[in-house]
Structure formats: structure tokens, C-alpha cells
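chain below, 274 aa
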Amino acid sequence: MSTEPSPSGLRTPPRLELTGVSRSFPLRGRRTLPVLDQVSLSVAPGEFVSIVGPSGAGKSTLFNLIAGLDRPTCGRIAIDGDVINGPHAHTAYMPQNDLLFPWRTVAANAALGLEVQGVPRRRARDQVRELFGRFGLAGFEDAYPFELSGGMRQRAALLRTVAQRRETLLLDEPFGALDSLTRMQMQLWLQQVWAEHSWTALLVTHDIREALILSDRVVVLSPRPASVRLVLEVDLPRPRDAAVTTTPAFARLERALLAAVTDDPPADAGLSAW
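prediction:
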């Protein structure tokens, strides 16, 4: 993706840029398992991009590389122009499971990331308490995770993620364990708070509809070793509600994504090579 022009006419640098990123893992007998193959993409500040692809295609591996938890075999990853070579303070990472500690209150769980960064415990918990109302958790600050519904637990996990006050969020299937109704509610809620805070967000999901509801663009990965097969611009107006899934425009995009994932893109699907 090219950088976007700012109101002054200057080009805005990408928030995230991957260039020729590959990752292989060693196996026995001097063999290797190639997982990512020459992945190149860029994400603009404030953009919401979803990544879809078959199971085992390396989506979570890609997130580990962006978060600095692993290093590519070759290629370059940069955030705001800084090359990533290890753990860093540019991104906040929300994994698939909420990972709330059952012995800590919701406020204590939400403050954990700040405490790890060295913020004193009391100040960290005061900071996160300011966010509870916006995340639909007011009144549950002193509750324990077992007292929350599945959707509330995911809100608490996302609160913990954004409380770190980092501009780029990595969301690895955060709603995968929820029932369909709760999942839809969480998708609409996430869309709203993302727009209000102007986060840059990357979402890994297996749910094509989720990707279309939330995203500005959807990146489709090939089977392992994964490369960027296609990109789909999601030209649906915002804000999007549940009714958008019944529109012809949504159906067209959904067909295009399904075709891309199954490696059978129609000529007029609105897809383009990355």
C-alpha cells in the first residue's frame, strides 16, 4: 500500500511496514519448516486491517514478529520508521484467550501491563479505573474474572491492552470463543471505540464477516508458507451495523473474500495483488 497524502499534500509515512518478511523454523535432520514467505505489507496510521487465511498459515507467527517476540529469518519490519529487532514499546498485543488471572480483580488484571512497565501499582490501577465506563465495565472494577460474562471478560482483556497507551493494537482472534450474538455485539462495540481513539489496528480472524464489518482492508494469506495473496479494499460506509451484512455490497465483498481464501478469485471481485 502506498502512503496516503495528508491535508498539506505531503505523504504520511506508514505506521507499520513489512518488507520481504520470511520465517522458517528448524526441524530435525537439518530440515526447516517455512511458515512465512516474502510477506510485504504496510498499514497507515489509524487504519484497521484484518488478516485472514487458512489455519496454520502463519498469522500468529506474523503477529509475534510484529510484536518483537520473534525475529524474521529474513526481511524487515518497521514501526514509525524504527526497525523492529526485539521486544519494543510500539504495540500492544491481545492474544486469543483473555488470560485474566483468576486471583486478581478486574481492575488489577487491567493494570497488569502498566505494572510490568514499572508504573506503581496504585497509580496503574487508578489509571485503568478511568476507562471502565467506556468499556462497559463500570461497577465491576473489584469483581473477579469468574463473575464476568464471556463478552465482559474480552472487554476487560482489551481494556488491559489499550491501557498501555500504545497506538498500534495487535488483536489475535479476540472474539473467537464467544457465541455468535455476543461476538456481533463485540464487533460493533470495537468498531466504535476504535473510531473514537484513532488506533491503528491489526486483527487476525477466521471470520470473513468479522473482517468485513471491522476493516478498511482485508489481507488474504496463502497456505503455508504464507505469502500475501490478495488484498480487498472494504468500501462500505462507516459506522457499520449488523444490517450491513444483508446488503448487496456486503455480499459482493463476502463472495470476493471467499473466492480469495479458496484460491478461486473471480475476475470482477474487486481484489488486487498486494
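Residues 4-10, 265-274 have pLDDT under 50 and may be disordered. The longest strand covers residues 32-43.
thats it, cya
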